[in-house]
Write a structure and sequence with these properties.
12 strands; Beta-lactam/transpept-like; alpha+beta; 3-stranded antiparallel beta sheet; Beta-lactamase/esterase; Beta-lactamase; Beta-lactam-related; hydrolase; 15 helices; EstA family serine hydrolase
Length: 389
């Protein structure tokens, strides 16, 4: 099938490089189905989709096909917490016990809301096995984490809370707004980002197709201490070691992400179902000051932690829930001072850059080899930056 038949949608001529990269990825067999969207200067300039939404049935990817975006969800959950803080309903620099008294068990009484949002709480994995059915109850998940001892002294370094992040940061929303993260997000600022998927949206959603490979990490050059084959070896070893923090953080709860119990469960760290168009529109609204005040966003994306990640092995960097450029969030040089967002385990990304007035989203259903994204998203982001440079 020719590329012009695989890829459909709109692309401004100035951004033809994005379309060319997207088409090449299909031609090389690196996408089964996917969508990519770009806003520049507040204007939608790329809205492309193509391929197969469901490998089993052969259903094609349509303009309104949503797909699970994995950890791209975290940036949306963090935004909900920041919006409540902006309204004065929660003080993120105060101890979590101010609004969640039970959380103070086992030496966690000094943990602040900011530390929850920056992966410093020391709770990257559950202490016992958790089922997908249990994970649909955010109050139960929060109670488990409140009663756990931390893996390290909170605030003494950071480590990626791959799944637990959602129930920790989400508790800011649940206890302050009295609603789930998904309900708050859809009511307040993003009605088409589904954290807890309706039956109608689930019926249209793409089905994930796994590659079966362990995380391969990132291979593009980026400032930091990690690079080369040694890094890839250590990543693979950590992923395959059942006792490692990486393995425990990524694989509990363990479930098929195609299952309704997960998609309807509204996991606030990794359960969002969306189109790239709607995810890019979310970032465009963020940088345009239509969700948070611009000063709130500046404070939210300000880098709080950088360096050796206790879970991911590689260096990572975070603002208040947003990734900043690092090995886990690769960006071209033009965006390394101003880009923020979040990658997803399936290979996707959501990115905003207020300096460039750029918003990019990519969501595929063919799982990538990288634990926090892969080269497909980097190539598309690089092409988008080239168009605005």
């Amino acid at each position: 099938m020719a590329n012009d038949q695989v890829v459909r949608g709109h692309c401004d001529p100035a951004f033809r490089g994005v379309r060319e990269v997207f088409e090449t990825q299909f031609a090389e067999g690196r996408n089964l189905g996917a969508s990519v969207a770009v806003f520049a200067g507040g204007r939608p300039v790329v809205d492309l989709w193509g391929g197969i939404a469901d490998a089993r049935t052969g259903r094609e990817w349509e303009h309104d096909t949503p797909c699970l975006a994995f950890s791209c969800t975290k940036a949306v959950t963090a935004t909900a917490a920041l919006l409540l803080a902006e309204r004065g309903e929660v003080a993120l620099d105060r101890p979590v016990t101010d609004w969640w008294p039970e959380f103070g068990a086992h030496g966690k009484e000094g943990v602040t809301g900011e530390q929850l949002l920056t992966h410093q709480a020391g709770l990257p994995a559950f202490a016992r096995k958790v089922s997908a059915e249990e994970a649909a109850d955010p109050a139960a998940m929060a109670a488990l984490l409140a009663d756990q001892a931390p893996e390290w002294t909170p605030g003494d370094g950071h480590g990626y809370h791959a799944l637990t992040y959602g129930w920790l940061a989400g508790e800011i929303v649940r206890r302050t707004a009295g609603t789930t993260v998904g309900e708050f997000v859809r009511r307040e600022f993003a009605p088409d980002l589904w954290i807890g998927t309706s039956p109608e949206v689930m019926a249209k959603a793409a089905k994930l197709s796994a590659t079966g490979r362990p995380p391969s990490g990132a291979t593009d050059p980026q400032p930091g201490r990690n690079s080369g084959a040694d890094l890839m070896t250590r990543l693979a070893e950590a992923y395959l070691d059942p006792e490692s923090l990486l393995n425990r953080a990524l694989n509990n709860p363990a479930a098929s992400y195609n299952k309704p119990v997960v998609l309807q469960g509204g996991w606030p760290a990794a359960g969002m179902v969306a189109t790239s168009r709607d995810l890019a529109a979310f970032y465009d609204s963020l940088i345009g000051g239509r969700i948070l005040r611009k000063e709130t966003l500046r404070e939210g994306v300000r880098e709080r932690v950088r360096g050796a990640d206790r879970v991911l092995v590689v260096d990572s960097a975070f603002g208040l829930g947003f990734m900043r450029p690092a090995m886990t969030f690769l960006t071209p040089s033009a965006g390394r001072d101003s880009a923020f967002g979040h990658t997803g385990a399936g290979g996707g990304i959501g990115l905003g850059d207020p300096d460039k007035e750029l918003a990019v989203a990519f969501i595929p259903n063919q799982m990538g080899g990288g634990m926090a994204g892969d080269r497909r998203s980097y190539e598309l982001v690089k092409a988008a930056y080239a168009a605005v440079s």
